[in-house]
Amino acid sequence: MPSTVPIEPNDVAARIALQTLSRRGAGYADEVRRLLDAALDLMRACGTTSRPRVADIVAAAGLSNDAFYRHFPSKDALVAAILEDGTERLLSYLAHQMAKEATPEGQVQRWVEGVLAQAADEDIAATTLAVLWNAGTVGQGLPSASRPLGALLLDPFAALGSADPDGDATFVAHAVVGVMSDHLWGRSRPTRAATAHLVELCLAVVGARRP
Question: How far lies 187's CA from each of 145, 164, 176, in Å?
Answer without folding.
Answer: 20, 34, 16
